[in-house]
Each structure stands twice: as structure tokens, then as C-alpha cells.
Amino acid sequence: MDAVGLHGLAGAEAAGLHATEWYALSLLDLEGSLTSGKLSTRTGLTTGATTRLIDRLERAGYVRRTADPADRRKVVVEPVPDALAGVDAIVGPARRHIAEVIAQYTPEQQEVLFDYFARAAPAYRAASEEIRRARTER
């Protein structure tokens, strides 16, 4: 876990972003777009902090705001595809190294690994929420 965290910090630094901005950009890269409310929930930031985060990412050219077609009162944050090419270049080495590691496993073992990753990610998100709740309840 430490290695993953350190890689995230190195990626953020290489992109000229703060860790939270890097994480938000990573979420948008994976999801395609999110409402500002969902981005707030996924990052654990307040709505005000999320607005400032979106402002910074928008000024840097990484995202743009659009109106939600289903509810024009909501803002959808979507990544700017050309800007994400730079992000892909930064995470490319990690993806290549991890692909080399995974390729050493049999297809059956890979299925187990991918099942673990699919189950572990929500478990870590839930644990993060518990940590945040415990901090706010103090």
C-alpha cells in the first residue's frame, strides 16, 4: 500500500498537482465524468473544497464543467481528453510494470487477482469513510 501511495504522490508531483487533485483527475479518467456532488463524495471533500478543486483543475486545462442533461441545476465535471494524454504518460510506466507482473500468473490466478482488486477497492473506500466519520465525530 505504501508503494501505491508513494506512486500517487510522485504522479501528482510530475503533473504539477496536489495529491487530492491527482486523485480527482484519476477518478474522472476512470469514470469519464462525475457530477460535482459525486466528486465531492468520492474525494471526501466538502462541497466548497470540491468547487475550489474543480476551479484549479479547470484553470490547469484538465477538466471542464457542463450542465447535467438530466438536471440542469447540477454541474457535470468531465475530463478534457487531450489533457489526459499527459496523465497517461505519467502513469504509463506503472501500468507497464504491473502488466508485466500480472502476465507472470496463469489465467486462473489472474482471475483471482482481479476479483481481489474488485472487492478490495470498495473495502478501502468504506474504511476511508469510517476514518473520515470518526474524525468529524470527535
Automatic annotation (TrEMBL):
This is Putative transcriptional regulator. Residues 1-122 form the HTH marR-type domain. It holds the Pfam family MarR. It comes from Amycolatopsis methanolica 239. One of its GO terms (molecular function) is DNA-binding transcription factor activity. SUPFAM superfamilies: Winged helix' DNA-binding domain. PANTHER family: TRANSCRIPTIONAL REGULATOR, MARR FAMILY (PTHR33164), TRANSCRIPTIONAL REGULATORY PROTEIN (PTHR33164:SF106). The gene is marR. GO terms for biological process: response to stress.
